[in-house]
């Protein structure tokens, strides 16, 4: 599933590719409309309180955020491209200290490609990691790890076929801060 590469300017990005045993429309729907059901919120949330759900609003400039049980919300970014069932591009406005930062914008581009009527290739690129400055390589390593996009997409892949989803661990906040 893991592929790392550079874009035309030589800047590292994280690219993941996986097959989902679902048609293209279902694969897109599960990724977007069911996002809060497969995203590993126990370990992957940035709000002060434990997240109850995560939401991608289904339109350009829609919010991408988490909501805690007490109703508080914590932004992650915005929907930049909404093209069902082929593509979604989300801004990732989360700093290397795991806080929302409206001034930091990396992008998560997810494309859905038909392989067969019941199988879809999902290609995710997390790009513009150079915008993390001196933390760019650290963040690229985190995103490329089992606790990053690799394990997160495995959650998605498992949920898409109706299987129970196991937890994904991520590096501790103290491990990520230096």
What would you note in describing this structure?
With 178 residues, the chain is α+β, with helices and mostly antiparallel strands. The chain has a single domain, classed as START domain (Alpha-D-Glucose-1,6-Bisphosphate, Chain A, domain 4), CATH 3.30.530. It has helices at 24-32, 35-38, 136-144, 146-160, 173-176; strands at residues 2-6, 12-20, 51-56, 63-68, 73-83, 87-92, 106-116, 119-127. Strands 1-2-8-7-6-5-4-3 form an 8-stranded antiparallel beta sheet. Strand 4 and strand 5 (73-83) form a beta hairpin. The radius of gyration is 15 Å and the shape is globular. Mean pLDDT is 89; it is low at 1-5 and 172-178.
Question: Which key phrases capture this entry?
Answer:
35% strand, 178 residues, 5 helices, alpha+beta, disordered C terminus, Alpha-D-Glucose-1,6-Bisphosphate, Chain A, domain 4
Mean pLDDT: 89
Q: What value does the Rg take, in angstroms?
A: 15 Å
Give the uncertain stretches in residue-range form: 1-5, 172-178
Instruction: Name the structural class.
Output: alpha+beta
How many structural domains? 1
Q: Biggest sheet, strands in spatial order?
A: 1-2-8-7-6-5-4-3
N- to C-terminal separation? 28 Å
The largest β sheet comes out as: 8 strands, antiparallel
So, the CATH homologous superfamily? Answer: START domain
Helix content: 10-25%
Number of helices: 5
| Overall 3D form | globular
Please name the CATH architecture: 2-Layer Sandwich
Element-by-element helix/strand order: EEHHEEEEEEHHH
What is the number of E strands? 8
Instruction: Report the CATH topology name.
Output: Alpha-D-Glucose-1,6-Bisphosphate, Chain A, domain 4
């Amino acid at each position: 599933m893991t592929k790392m590469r550079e874009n035309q300017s030589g800047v590292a990005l994280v690219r993941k590719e996986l097959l989902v045993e679902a048609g293209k429309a279902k694969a897109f729907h599960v990724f977007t409309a069911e996002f809060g059901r497969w995203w590993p919120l126990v370990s992957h949330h940035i709000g002060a309180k434990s997240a109850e759900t995560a939401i991608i609003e289904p339109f350009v400039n829609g919010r991408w955020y988490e909501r805690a049980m007490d109703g508080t919300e914590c932004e992650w970014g915005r929907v930049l491209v909404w093209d069902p069932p082929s593509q979604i591009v989300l801004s990732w406005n989360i700093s290397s200290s795991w806080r929302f930062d409206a001034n930091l914008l990396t992008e998560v581009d997810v494309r859905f490609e038909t392989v067969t009527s019941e199988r879809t290739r999902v290609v995710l690129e997390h790009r513009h990691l150079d915008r993390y400055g001196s933390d760019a390589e650290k963040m690229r390593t985190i995103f490329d790890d089992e606790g990053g996009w690799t394990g997160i997409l495995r959650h998605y892949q498992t949920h898409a076929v109706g299987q129970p989803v196991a937890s994904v661990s991520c590096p501790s906040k103290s491990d990520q801060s230096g």
